[in-house]
């Protein structure tokens, strides 16, 4: 029953926020959406999410936040699973197919505030010149829980980001990175199975 309730309320929220989505998503809990009418948010097939303290028993759980500012473009591919994430999109966030993103991970494509102290400390605060850059998560990537992905980052195909990492530079395909700041750990070996 909880799954149906989550699906119904989430579908209504998606509809009200002009989100392009497929009806085959599975949601436990409901997300928080703030989608500007001049931004876009699209979700691929078989999207799966856990949102909120009763549906994400991993500690430091929250509802999923999907925020798209004016002119922003948030795209989630097919067969993507997330838990208690926050995606804040002022420019572009693109998540490929078969991506898994762990609990309490945040992805920001913006600095939010000016790096110029005069603008940042003015009253009211001046936001012109705030830097944004796209974030790209390629197919098959896995991002461990409690990670922070910052603006301008590309996470390569089938790469892994260790739990609790802060990523501010590109992660190449098929590699494992971890830490704060995230650094190369090793290649991500793919083990073939035999029938």
Automatic annotation (TrEMBL):
Signal peptide start and end residues: none
UniProt xrefs under InterPro entries: Hexapep, Hexapep_transf_CS, Hexapeptide_acetyltransf, Trimer_LpxA-like_sf
One Pfam entry name: Hexapep
Keywords: Acyltransferase, Repeat, Transferase
Record keyword Transferase present: yes
Membrane spanning stretches: none
Record keyword Lyase present: no
PROSITE patterns: HEXAPEP_TRANSFERASES (PS00101)
Family: Belongs to the transferase hexapeptide repeat family.
Name of the protein in its database record: Acetyltransferase-like isoleucine patch superfamily enzyme
Organism in which the protein naturally occurs: Mucilaginibacter lappiensis
């Amino acid at each position: 029953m909880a799954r149906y309730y989550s699906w119904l309320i989430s579908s209504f929220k998606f509809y009200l926020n002009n989100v392009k989505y497929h009806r085959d998503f599975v949601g436990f809990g409901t997300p928080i959406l703030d989608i500007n009418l001049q931004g876009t948010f699209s979700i691929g097939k078989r999207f799966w999410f856990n949102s909120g303290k009763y549906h994400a028993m991993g500690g430091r759980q929250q509802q999923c936040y999907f925020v798209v500012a004016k002119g922003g473009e948030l795209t989630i591919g097919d067969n993507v699973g997330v838990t208690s994430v926050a995606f804040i999109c002022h420019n572009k966030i693109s998540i490929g197919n078969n991506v898994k993103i762990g609990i309490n991970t945040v992805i920001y494509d913006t600095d939010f505030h000016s790096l110029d102290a005069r603008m940042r400390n003015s009253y009211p605060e001046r936001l012109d010149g705030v830097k944004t850059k796209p974030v790209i998560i390629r197919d098959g990537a896995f991002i461990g829980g409690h990670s922070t992905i910052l603006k301008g980052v590309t996470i390569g195909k089938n790469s892994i980001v260790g739990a609790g990492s802060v990523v501010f530079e590109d992660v190449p395909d098929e590699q494992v990175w971890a830490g704060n700041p995230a650094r190369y750990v090793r290649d991500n070996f793919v083990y073939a199975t035999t029938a």
